[in-house]
Amino acid sequence: MRTDTEHTIFLRDYAPTPYRIISVDLDFKITEETTRVRAQLTIEPRDGTEPGTPLVLDGDGISLDSIAIDGAPLVLAAYAADENGLTLVEPPHRRFVLETEVLLRPETNSKLMGLYRSSGTWCTQCEPEGFRRITYYLDRPDILAPFKVRITAPKSVAPVLLSNGNLLEAGEAGDGMHYVVWEDPFPKPAYLFALVAGDLGSIHDSFTTMSGRKVDLAIYCTHGKESECLYAMDSLKRSMAWDEKRFGREYDLDVFNIVAVSDFNFGAMENKGLNIFNDKLVFASPETASDANYASIERVIAHEYFHNWTGNRITCRDWFQLCLKEGLTVYRDQEFSSDERSRPVQRIHDVENLRVTQFPEDGGPLAHPPRPDRYREINNFYTTTVYQKGSEVVRMLATILGEEGFRKGMDLYFDRHDGDATTIEAFIAVFEEANGVELGQFSRWYTEAGTPEVTATEDYDAATQTYRLTLTQKTNPTPNQPEKAPFVIPVRFGLIGPNGSDMGWSAVSGGTVKDDLIILDQDSVTLTFEGIANKPVPSLFRGFSAPVKLHSGLGQEELLFLARHDVDPFNRWDALQSVSTHLLAEAAEGRAWDNGNIDALRQALLDTLNDANLDDAFKAQAIGIPDETDIARHIGRDVDPDAIAQARAAFITALVAPMAGTLEALFASLAIHEAYSPGASQTGRRSLRTALLSLLVAGSDIGAALAERLYANAGNMTERYAALAISVRNWTPDAQALLGDFRTRYSGDLLVFDKWLVASAQAKDDGLIERMRTILAAPDFPRTNPNRLRSLLGSFVMNNPAQFTRLDASGFRFICEAVTEIDKVNPQVAARILTGFRILPMLEQRRRSAGRAALESLKNQDGLSRNTQDILERILAG
Ligand code: ARG
Ligand code: ZN
User: Which domains does the chain carry?
Assistant: First the structure.
């Protein structure tokens, strides 16, 4: 029986290795059946390493064929090799070359870590610990070395041979084989190594950097998909230009290659000069990709490109520092999308995503800080907390220091740490130095988990024209962190007067206020504003200036006032959402709503729709009704997802029925007659149409037919898929027929098949789980492909709470059985799906016990992977 701490790795145990790797020469001989890897590692002891200190190299599932030092084969007693590594008992106490040979079988590598084959193409994924599945190595991010890579392969199946860096050499190798040599002059950790070999099509372009260097750009893909890569190429060029303009960062190699593959464990990977992408984040055509897909492609292409500076040139010392590169790079891609698209709408999207995914993680059994201090399985820490909350922390730094101060810090970071494997502490230090400030308390955001709750109370004295605002923070305990000290919380704010404009004040006391920014750094602060002629309505956390939950204490009337007048578009949106969420939560908890409140909300929505100063994309967000998980989060405990679903349906009907005619007319007037373009104006218009349709289908009897018609007449995937998804989510009379049509209409396209799977998993009828079992059991279901599995199962656990948490436990059991099977093939995918169970603690008692029972029986399965065990045990402990 394993104990809880058996595999736990702690941040406090970090120590450099006694040996370092000076350079790496790899030689891959690829044949259809096997790949032979010969590695020549130039190694030397670090200063201070005692002679006779063993050298321990990582290995995972590989076996050693031959071993030599400086050309001389080693005797058996000189080393020990097994599945988990290779130990040199007494390596030379000087610089030496270790040569090893191993034989790989990429064809049977179903974990998709290391070297594997996806639809005939050989490719690699090494982050975080995949390189040790290719050769014995010091597989950790603080070991940096230049790599030279020779690849020999059959020309017929692998005319394209790629690795990191620049191409040095290429030629014939006899017997139908050919070879290439790539060299990457930038020392890099092994997790950034990549190799691709296959028969691929490609598109080519170039970019001239700000210093005038020409960089050759290429995207490789399955033959026939070339034209679907054009949007990704365009996104790449815009990303390169943006990083120069916004951060002064130029690309450094002569080539930048991207390869799209069909089997990939996550979105994409920033390997130096050779990014490898999940093909769903590259391919786009109006007929097969939605506006949302276009936006994701742009974002992820940018994200991986931006890693070249924040991740590759400056990397992490150890995997605890993951958010050093990920949080920062998400911040950069969010800023890029904001500059390329609508900033307020981007912010709303990003915050919605944070609230829907990260807040539940932070408030549940899997909570951890952006920089954790322990892990059993690092793959389970590529989380929304590390990525999205990590980005929010960087954003708060920018808010507190101001744009210029932030840029000064970033410049110093790039200057000082280029070529380093570094830490969060070093990152914080550059901002302290560049700005002459102290950020010790601020750093808690990196080391403490949990979402702070901020409560606002106010008090206005007309006689003295004094307004007092008290802000109090509190954070609930999280696993391993029972006590919480106060965070430094930047509160961007305004005080809005009766005429709807921001008011000024003659003096403020009681705390730190700089322009429109309050810094809340204690448990509680009371600010006294003088010279306030009327009682204001406070607008707090403008632009969502900190990742907290706000209890504003504002009533519906004041919130609707903000929704109409706030100069901050984010808070206008948020005010409308708060009003709906309150009413919905009340209804779900069995209290009757006040029709007057619904009428007022309806009027506010209509006013928003009629406001000529707002753009369509913003209106689409503003009229959206919080979904079931938003409501559940607001209720927080003893959640009954059925009651929520029912209350939500009734609420939307009450809200929409009286304005259905108006909405329908608007829906009709927004039809687009020009050819499809993924640009802002069409995208905004389509999103508003979709939002209207959503309201009409859920809340009126004319909606279902409108959706059916939109589905039938749609000229692009965005509209057709929206019509399908809305029909299925509301389980309209046409839903089943539309699903059937969609399935056959696009039968050849696997990425569209994923959309069908996602939509299918959203159905609300009692037959759903049986249908999903049938889909999974079909002999031709691609059961080793992560996209397919995540589309069906991931979307079910995350987006269909009422069905997943069914009282009869069939949803829980279905997922546990699927996870058991998937775990044998691909543990990372299995563990990710299992995280859906993190909602258990917030469910009402009966569902909670049914879910626990399902997890307990999963726990009794033999041979579960460490990935799955780790998630399972953390959820059960919570
Ligand atoms: N570094 C990649 C990115 O965010 C993702 C790698 C994910 N790795 C993992 N084991 N989940 O750009
Ligand atoms: Zn990343």
Answer: 9-199 (2.60.40.1730), 315-447 (1.10.390.10), 453-546 (2.60.40.1840), 746-878 (1.25.50.10)
